[in-house]
Amino acid sequence: MAKQRRGYLGTFGKVLKWGGFLLLALVVGAVAILFTIDFNTYRDTIEQRAEAALGRDVSIKGDLSLALSLHPTIAVGNLTIANADWAARSTMLQVRQLRARLDLLPLLSGNVQIHSISLMDPELHLETNSDGVGNWTFSTGGESAGQQQAQQQQDDGSGGATVSVEDIDVTNALITYRDGSTGQRMEVMFDRIMLHTTSPESPLDVAVEGSVFDRTFKLSGMVGSPQALRDPDAVFPVDLTGSFAGLRFAVDGSMSSPGGGGEMQFTVAANADSLEQLGQIAGMNLEQLGPFAFEAQVSGDMQAMKVDLRKLQLAKSDLTGSLSARLSEEPPFVEANLTANQILLDPFLDLMPAGQEQPQSGQLFGDEPIAAIDMLDRVNARLRLEAKLLQARDLELRDLDVSGTLKDGNFEVELARTALYDGHIQGMFAVNSGGGREPEMQTRVNLDDFDIGRFLTEMQVTDKLAGSIDAEADISSVGRSPGALAAASNGRFQVTMGKGRINSQYVELLATDLVKVLLPGGADVANVNCGVTRFDIKDGVADMTQMLLDTEKITVGGDGTINLDSEKLDLTFVPRPQDPSLVSLATPINVTGTLTDPSFSLDKAAVAQDLAMAIIGSAINPLGILVPFVTGGASGDGNACVQALKNAESGAAPVKQDGAQSAPERVIEGVGEGLKNLFGR
User: Fold this and answer.
1) Helices marked H in 326-401 — which ranges?
2) Could you tell me which of 627, 629, 645 has the C-alpha nearest to residue 637?
3) CB 105 within 8 A of CB 113
4) Is 11 exposed, middle or buried (0-12, 13-18, 19+ CB in 10 A)?
5) What percent of the chain has pLDDT over 70?
6) To 10 degrees, what angle do helices 43-54 and 145-156 make?
7) How confident is the model over 625-647, as a mean pLDDT?
8) Exposure of 358 by Cβ count < 10 A (0-12 exposed, 13-18 middle, 19+ buried)?
9) Please, which pLDDT band fits residue 558 given cuts at 50, 70 and 90?
10) Does position 659 have pLDDT exceeding 50, yes or no?
11) Cβ-contact 128, 134 below 8 angstroms
């Protein structure tokens, strides 16, 4: 019996031995056959399958080869994919050579594990048409190939083959983009793109080098796994650093459901020793802005985002605060709360192109609608800015606190009490245009103890003045264009000041002969008691209800109107000596014409020319009627200006004091007598 079993085992061993030899022979034969197969004969089949999947012509003009091993390598030469029918180029993608190295054994279970994919000299040309449709949208009669495949797998219950890639290596890649609506083009050259992961669940290492706009860039670091991109519950980390055109940047954080716009939490930082290279790309000289530093925390999602601005430094200016946006609302809502130690605007103003000379229309206030009004209902916003110093040219605002709101087409900005040239300014500006109604505008401004002398000196207007003024404006109007707003304006504007000094050359503009008599010996300074100007505006007509400039020797009064609709001037200014015996030397000045083309009557053309320029300034801003002539100080109780100052504050017309005429009345009523003396009558 034992001998019989040994016989069976011997026979079975021989069968296994010969069976093994036979299997080995079959494998060797199969391998030999595979090595002798010319895969180029399957070129047409592969192209047809690819065309069916993409809905585009696919061409393989180079060799197809397969290197067999436990990690077979597939190589494809000169692969091209056609562009969309409407595209400017005929080819969307072309690759000189593509290589893929796979694992053999997982293929038996229907899984595709790719060790590496390498692309050499690929060119990808992206573009959109005039409707914004991209050429990267593939379809096969309506549904994309991916959608059809996913639906088929869902219908038959199969999960489909899994595909994973460990390494991607791209060299000398060119990507171009063309905007079909604007025609703008951009090219990016990638010297090297390297992506590496150890498994579909592991993070992806990234290393990229290339150039754009003739400037090199680098990007390296880590991002989440390929599988996390498809998992709506996964957290996708990002830790990247890079550089471009002298700018160094870093992004560190994570986001959930990256394919579905989930929650994000990122820290973003950037800095540069100079923005010169970025400026060269933009065609601007940004070198003057100096070093740049930025750091912020970004959180939220694509519907509601918040930015915690930790640092923004540029051009010796700094900014911190918070910004948020709720894009899901209709209209979107934006909020910003910003704080600065100092904001220096001069370097940014220097970047602005010089203003082009506007064509002469004969009008100061144009009839062209203000385009920004129609945009007020496109977003709701709440904004606030606090700055210890804001400087623009020679204008300085200290302890600035400005806030604004924009809701349903109604805009309002409020300036809290802010230091300005040793004085203070505060005010508000509002535009109400919600509900499609005609826009209503309102402006209120208060200025007190404003050092007009310092202001004019630093603005390089004149250094001949010293003192302070108070000013107040409250104006409202309705309209969509500057012309309509001017024609419908109502309100008031006034400027007051007390004792001060004036250079005699400015007084001489008003009364040349009087100066020679009252300031003999070429005195440089004349003492001023006060100055008052007030305009009351009703239905577009500005009535100069108060105008007084009182010096030790001369008083100047004014009266008249400015029609802001027709822009016509009807003003009278009269210099009058305090000594009645010198009244014959006083010459009234009548100003007529329009704001852009004034005319005047005066006894000396040279004096008239200089004075007319001052009067033009006052027509636009009544402050201009005083700025060229006086500076302020405190007014005493014995000053003849006390009543005029009280009248300006109350809005009352000039009244008599102690049975005598007020200074403005004396001046205006003396116009007739002055004219008679002027013409020898």
Assistant:
1) 346-349
2) 645
3) no
4) exposed
5) 70
6) 90
7) 43
8) exposed
9) confident
10) no
11) yes
